[in-house]
């Protein structure tokens, strides 16, 4: 029988301890979202206590990555902007309600919509990203990714009234810029045309201007690629070059019908 005690001692001796507590940080993030920003039932009475819990966990973990004075300054700045962030998030929940005929209430959006959850976590992580907080922004965004299957890098710049429909499989890269009133459906990738470490400080991901709709499965790549305002990108489209405003980009599908009846196989090709 394996000696569990010896294995545990060996693992402990050879382990490199990570500087932050991921479990604590994820719990703090959930507390902020579900007990402070969107409190359920009569949780408002304990909002101050819950907010202090978030504050203390963030300070302790950021301090482990830098120093306590820097950590306190970062978290203080984030906390001071929470009322404005909360207003913005309620406005964005209303955007989901207005755009989705299946939504019965704003409360339903807040409690159940994966796209909205990913967007909330993005807004939080982006604030820490702008302060150059190490690791924490990416940890938050990857937590949302693991929960709902939507990967929004905290470095992306996303404007007002952003709307994610369904959301599963969406990828939005670090240097993506998205304007106002943009709608994105499931399976969309806003990615890099080339992936090399040497491009780490370059704009690698596309720019999406205002009032653009990107339908399911579309892929838009490249830091120089700009989708002009009021454009529509059709489902499964593959785009690596810029398009002017008011464009319609479509992916034509080729259908082959195989008829094996009677005198052998006949193939009819046509595009739709």
UniProtKB/TrEMBL annotation:
Cleavable signal peptide: none
Organism: Dysgonomonas termitidis
PANTHER family referenced in this protein's UniProt entry, alphabetically: SERINE ACETYLTRANSFERASE
Protein name (record): Serine O-acetyltransferase EpsC
Swiss-Prot/TrEMBL keywords: Acyltransferase, Amino-acid biosynthesis, Transferase
Annotated CDD domains: LbH_SAT (cd03354)
Statement: the UniProt record of this protein carries the keyword Transit peptide: no
Transmembrane segments annotated in the record for this chain: none
InterPro entries, per the entry: LbH_SAT (IPR045304), Ser_AcTrfase_N_sf (IPR042122), Serine_acetyltransferase (IPR053376), Trimer_LpxA-like_sf (IPR011004)
């Amino acid at each position: 029988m394996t000696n569990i005690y010896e294995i545990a001692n060996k693992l402990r001796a050879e382990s490199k301890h990570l500087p932050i507590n991921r479990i604590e940080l994820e719990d703090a993030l959930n507390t902020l979202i579900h007990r402070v920003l969107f409190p359920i039932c009569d949780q408002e009475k304990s909002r101050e206590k819950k907010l202090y819990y978030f504050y203390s966990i963030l300070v302790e973990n950021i301090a482990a990555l830098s120093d306590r004075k820097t950590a306190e300054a970062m978290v203080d700045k984030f906390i001071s902007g929470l009322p404005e962030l909360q207003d913005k998030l309620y406005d964005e929940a209303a955007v989901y309600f207005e755009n989705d005929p299946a939504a019965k209430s704003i409360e339903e959006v807040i409690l159940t919509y994966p796209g909205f959850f990913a967007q909330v976590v993005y807004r939080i992580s982006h604030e820490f990203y702008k302060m150059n907080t190490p690791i924490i922004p990416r940890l938050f965004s990857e937590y949302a990714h693991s929960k709902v299957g939507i990967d929004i890098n905290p470095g992306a710049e996303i404007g007002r009234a952003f709307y994610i429909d369904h959301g599963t499989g969406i990828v939005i890269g670090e240097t993506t810029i998205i304007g106002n009133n943009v709608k994105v459906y499931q399976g969309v990738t806003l990615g890099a045309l080339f992936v090399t470490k040497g491009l780490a400080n370059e704009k690698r991901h596309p720019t999406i201007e205002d009032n653009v709709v990107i339908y399911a499965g579309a892929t838009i790549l490249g830091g120089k690629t700009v989708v002009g305002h009021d454009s529509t990108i059709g489902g499964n489209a593959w785009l690596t070059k810029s398009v002017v405003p008011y464009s319609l980009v479509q992916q034509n599908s080729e259908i082959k019908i195989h008829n094996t009846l009677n005198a052998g196989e006949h193939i009819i090709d046509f595009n739709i």
